[in-house]
Design a protein that fits this description.
The protein is of the alpha+beta class. It has a single domain, classed as Helix Hairpins. The chain contains 3 helices and 2 strands, in the order αααββ. A hairpin with a 5-residue loop joins β1 (65-69) and β2 (75-79). α2 (15-31) packs antiparallel against α3. It is elongated, with a radius of gyration of 19 Å. The relative contact order is 0.14.
Length: 83
Amino acid sequence: MAENEIPKEIAEMSFEDALQALEEIVKSLESGDVKLDQAIDNYAKGAALKRHCENKLREAHAKIEKISLDANGQITSEAANLE
């Protein structure tokens, strides 16, 4: 699998499920209670979960529009600048 490729089981996860799984991996890595091989596997899975969450956030950001009234009182919308 390519380094930036997201495994199918992760790609099918909702943002919330992926974030929860990522948080659990971070806790296990921070605890230091896992063997090195498992920590390396967890790190790789965590990296894929992070990319998936970032992709989901980018998709959501692209869908958000700023709705306002123009000078004539007409409703207008434009891509929101959330940064």
